[in-house]
Batch of 2 targets.
Target 1
Amino acid sequence: MDPYALKTLNAERRARRAVILVTDLGDGRDRIVREGDQVAGELGAAIAKAFRSGNSGSVEAEGGTFFLNVYLPQPRLLVIGAVHISQALAPMAKIAGYPVEIVDPRTAFATADRFPDVVLHAEWPEDVLSRQPLDSYTALAAVTHDPKIDDFALKAALDANCFYVGALGSRKTHAKRVERLLAMGATADQIARIHAPIGLDIGAASPAEIAVAIIAQAIQAFRSRGLESKEAAA
């Protein structure tokens, strides 16, 4: 591999940004393509698909053969609220391959007894996110029902372009939330990205069922990254 390409690749991976090392198997030349870079034609379509799937492999495009070596950051889930839903959601997310951390300043809720083997932050989201900024490979689920805890995290998730942002609450509750987020500087387009009520509409009622709906919706959002803009342009 070209030393410059290797240096660039390592820097992007440290910054939790997705990249693909594209190697022309005809002449051996390679280049780095970052997620969001515009690549036209058949090769561009193959690269976009590889970013969504995370699968490396060879492709035939533009009359040649290319190997796409895909490097995606590990998608993760940050849950705001150490509630009953979170107790069911944490193990489900781990099984699905999403490392989980839970934030809740209410020390009576954020306890190791209630969340064994889960990274817990018994702090305000403001303090946690100042140390551990969100990014586009993070999913955020806000489930406290408390604006003092949820709202800051939701605004931070929108600003960081998290691939999934969900918030617990009825449509009436969400309408009030929208007013607060607008006052905090969020745009209408950003707010439209919030899944509220949270989770796929499967008629979930119990905390465990709601947790299933949330992780399924997060997976759907992760695997469909980039398709929204493509469909809008069609």
Target 2
Amino acid sequence: MSLRYLTARVAQQIDEELMSQAGAFSLDQLMELAGLSCAQALARVYDRNKYPNVLVCCGPGNQGGDGLVAARHLGMFGYTPTIFLPKPGSKEIYQRLKTQCDNMKIKTIDDTTALRDALPTTNVILDAIFGFSFKGPIRAPFDSVLPLLTDSRLPIVSVDIPSGWDVEEGNVEGVGLRPDVLVSLTAPKLGVRSFSGIHFLGGRFIPKSLEEKFELNLPEYPGFDQIVELKE
């Protein structure tokens, strides 16, 4: 049986079950594992000796939390991450993840002027702006951020779904990012069927019971890796 691609509704149901008694995970745990997967995927494709400077772009939601975790791990891996927060999240968990990055002396920028200044010295972008709950249109300040990232022509690694894409319809408006690498979390979303770059699955945390219930048909992760490459 083939790997299942998820609608927004099913993706939300799985998240809820992961944090219910069926999964018994906390949000912190899921973010930690997701962020670690994304950091590992970036490191797999972009060697730190050639791509040392990573711009980690984080939205205000859980997707941004994954990005903050990834930034911390990238710092641990020997990269030099810079965090871009066009609109910081207000939740306590988000603030703690940001403090963890501050404690590692990871630089943060928060406006488009600083973004423009940072792009010339950036080697690769990690896109953790919008998650699978995104619904257009793209509003300020993100409507000016996405074109800057696209126009930079830098390699982009997107978390779960490229920012600006509809979770089920894909980049229908043509305004979303066009990443070179995608790290789908839990299972890929319906809207990324058209993605043609390097595609990883990450988030090695789905219990067999939930995998079977939702008929995910996940591939096996190799060894102790947190990611597995998806190939058509």
